[in-house]
């Protein structure tokens, strides 16, 4: 029997912090309204240097460090995002290159705010099937780039950031125990960023508030979120063979404190065991669960052997939950100076390895052109 354990974790939030007060100069809102209706006080916003891929690389590096894993040993990089750097190439490939994960496959996964849970489900399944040994699952979002900064109903809610975990296969029982994913595409319009091949890339589409910005029917998402948290938590707990009360900590997608309070009531589950860092980071979509999980770890809220439920919901509509038996505390992952130096060396070597690959490809291309020119010359001279 193979199990999928979380052996490394890392998060990155951009340094720029935007307060509610700052936003009240941009749109007609107030700190009071935002705190009372959502629980959010600040969010991190990426500057021009940070993108979905660069934030994912920073979080991924940290996760590899905690796992003490050579990036060249990764089999797969999954990047959950709905704000990719480009439509093509995929963001995960940029991350794979940035990390020097020279033997890894890479793909993006778009399930909006449920993306990280979807990624964890896919990654764990690949380890349990025996196909792979080490998978990096990242949730990374530059939500600020798809915000309409004149729309107070959305721009006050979201923030940017990335969170990553290393999943490793092992014979040791524990790790990702049961997962459940769901979707209801009939509600696709409830939460949308209309940028894609259905929307012709025409500058006229960018004017009159029709740009590729997020549009959301907040009330509908709110109702869907509370219903989903209740149903899926019960489902996944039952599948793992434990009672809801045996879950030590729930790490939900961080959308709104009132959603979490309503779900706690419906589940008859203590709200102080539903982790929230909304106040500090707002809604970072696919990045919100791993960022919250790492904050919970830092605060000493997670211990080896604990049952942890991660639950996501969002655009699609999509939802998903994973029940995990937590394997390591941060103290278990504090490496000796020898191991830390080795890991630093591996990470430092990742850069030259990337460049070596580029130089090799350049040389191959140069050789190809040289041979072509030589063939042409031979033909011309009649030889
Ligand atoms: O990641 C998953 C996706 N997102 C979510 O999960 C979000 C789920 N939904 C929500 O969190 C909430 O529905 C919101 C926070 C978006 C909205 O809260 P609400 O309590 O449902 O407010 P509402 O939409 O019913 O609006 C109430 C009033 C409206 O004014 P009127 O029509 O009553 O005069 C809004 O225009 O609040 C107004 N309003 C605001 N006022 C000040 C909406 N946004 C703001 C704002 N500041 N930022």
List the main descriptive attributes of the protein structure presented here:
383 residues; alpha/beta; Peroxisomal Thiolase, Chain A, domain 1; five-stranded mixed beta sheet; four-stranded mixed beta sheet; 11 helices; 13 strands; 21% strand; binds oxa(dethia)-CoA
Q: Shape, please?
A: globular
Number of helices, counting only DSSP H or I runs of 4 residues or more: 11
CATH fold topology of the largest domain: Peroxisomal Thiolase, Chain A, domain 1
Q: Can you tell me the residue ranges where pLDDT is under 50 for at least 5 consecutive residues? A: none
Biggest β-sheet: strands ordered side by side in the sheet: 1-7-6-4-5
> What is the beta-strand fraction?
15-25%
Gyration radius, rounded: 23 Å
Distance N terminus to C terminus? 65 Å
Bound molecules: oxa(dethia)-CoA
CATH level-two architecture of the largest domain? 3-Layer(aba) Sandwich
DSSP E strands, number: 13
- Judged by helices, strands and strand pairing, the structural class is alpha/beta
CATH class of the largest domain: Alpha Beta
Order of helices and strands: EEHHEHEHEHEHEEEEHEHHHEEH
Largest sheet: 5 strands, mixed
């Amino acid at each position: 029997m193979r199990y999928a354990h979380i052996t490394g974790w890392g998060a990155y939030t951009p340094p720029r912090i935007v307060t509610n007060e700052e936003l009240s100069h941009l749109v007609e809102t107030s700190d009071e309204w935002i705190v009372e209706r959502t629980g959010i006080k600040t969010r991190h916003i990426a500057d021009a240097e940070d993108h979905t891929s660069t934030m994912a690389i920073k979080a991924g590096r940290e996760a590899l460090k905690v796992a003490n894993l050579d990036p060249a040993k990764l089999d797969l990089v999954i990047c959950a995002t709905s704000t990719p750097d480009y439509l093509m190439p995929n963001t995960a490939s940029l991350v794979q290159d940035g990390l020097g994960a020279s033997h890894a496959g890479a793909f993006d996964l778009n399930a909006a705010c449920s993306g990280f849970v979807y990624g964890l489900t896919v990654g764990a399944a690949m380890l349990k099937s025996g196909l792979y040994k080490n998978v990096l699952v990242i949730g990374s979002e530059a939500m600020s780039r798809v915000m309409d900064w004149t729309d107070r109903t959305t721009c006050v809610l979201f923030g940017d950031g990335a969170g990553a975990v290393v999943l490793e296969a092992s014979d040791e029982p524990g790790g990702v125990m049961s997962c459940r994913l769901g979707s209801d595409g009939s509600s696709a319009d409830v939460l949308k960023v209309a940028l894609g091949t259905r929307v012709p890339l025409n500058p006229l589409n960018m004017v009159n508030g029709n740009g590729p910005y997020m549009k959301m029917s907040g009330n509908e998402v709110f109702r869907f979120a509370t219903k989903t948290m209740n149903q899926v938590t019960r489902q996944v707990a039952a599948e793992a063979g434990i009672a809801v009360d045996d879950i030590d900590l729930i790490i939900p997608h961080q959308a709104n404190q009132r959603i979490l309070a309503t779900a706690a009531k419906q589940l008859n589950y203590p709200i102080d065991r539903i982790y929230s860092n909304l106040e500090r980071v707002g809604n970072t979509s696919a990045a919100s669960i791993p960022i919250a999980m790492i904050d919970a770890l830092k605060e000493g809220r997670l211990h080896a052997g604990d049952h942890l439920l991660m639950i996501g919901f969002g655009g699609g509509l999509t939802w998903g939950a994973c029940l995990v038996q937590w394997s390591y505390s941060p103290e278990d992952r504090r490496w000796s100076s020898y191991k830390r130096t080795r890991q630093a060396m591996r990470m430092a070597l990742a850069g030259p390895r990337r460049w070596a690959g580029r130089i090799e490809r350049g040389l191959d291309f140069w050789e190809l052109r040289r041979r072509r020119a030589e063939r042409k010359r031979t033909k011309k001279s009649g030889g």
